[in-house]
Amino acid sequence: MAATSPSVVLDGLRKILGSSEHHWVLQADFHRRYQQLGESINDFQQALRLLGRRAFPTLDANALNTRVLEQLVAGVRDPQTRKALLRDRPPTLEKALALARKVSNVRPLSKSELVGYSYETQCVNSLWDKLFIENGVLFYRDSKQYPKRVVLLLSMVDDAVKRIHVELGHSGMHKTK
Predict the structure, then answer these.
(1) Given this model, what pLDDT does residue 173 score?
(2) ∠ CA 68-74-78 to the nearest 5 degrees?
(3) What backbone torsions phi and psi does residue 159 show, to the nearest 5 degrees?
(4) Coil, helix or strand for 39?
(5) Separation CA 117–CA 158 (nearest Å)
(6) Does this model's pTM top 0.85?
(7) DSSP H/E element including 137
(8) CA atoms of 134 and 126, how far apart (whole Å)
């Protein structure tokens, strides 16, 4: 029988027993892990989950999900997504991911993404941070001291006026006299 070198034996043991790094080093890496530029929320969560399994090998699945959820909220790159996660405090990782996907998919388009869109669309996009939806209606508000205003694209004004007229009739006819 051939003799086996100590380095081969140690490599074999590392494969069986796991990483040669100390858990506290991996835990520090886990807590320093932030979403990278261009990294999707799904990829970020997956990276946290993989790192978490190595950093916290004794945690059960629920406890690990809680750790991943905490670091996901702390490390998400987009401030609007983080704000929504902190505001809504989703109880599970799955709900946090759903909320993050919803929020991160709603963002203003970049100038390069707007190429070919109408002037109206470009105007609405430029007001992105002052727009909000309330009861299914898009509103614009410059600041809290000004009233909110309904936003309609020029091409939709006629249809909206006709629909309101049909639904309300002439109920306001005598208010103008």
Answers:
(1) 59
(2) 115
(3) -60, -40
(4) coil
(5) 21
(6) no
(7) strand 137-140
(8) 19
Asked whether the beta carbons of 27 and 59 are under 8 A apart, the reply is no
Query: Residue 127 gets which letter from DSSP?
Result: T
| Structure token digits, residue 118 | 């109408």
The first and second tokens of residue 107, run together, are 């963002």
Tokens 């998919």 correspond to what residue? 105
Contacts of 132 (CB under 8 A, 6+ apart): 138, 139, 141, 148
Q: What is residue 27's three-state secondary structure?
A: helix
> Domain map of the chain by residue range?
6-105, 111-176
Tokens of 159: 């249809």
- Of 82, 63, 84, residue with least CA distance to 74: 82
Pairwise CA distance, residues 84 & 122, whole Å: 26
Per residue in 101-151, pLDDT tens?
A: 888 766 677 888 788 888 888 888 888 778 777 766 788 888 878 888 888
Alpha carbon separation from 67 to 72, 96, 151, 157, 164 (Å, rounded): 8, 13, 42, 50, 51
**CATH hierarchy code of domain 6-105:** 1.10.1200
Q: Tell me what pLDDT residue 134 has.
A: 72
DSSP collapsed to 3 states, 60-115: CHHHHHHHHHHHHHHHCCCHHHHHHHHHHCCCCHHHHHHHHHHHHHCCCCCHHHHC
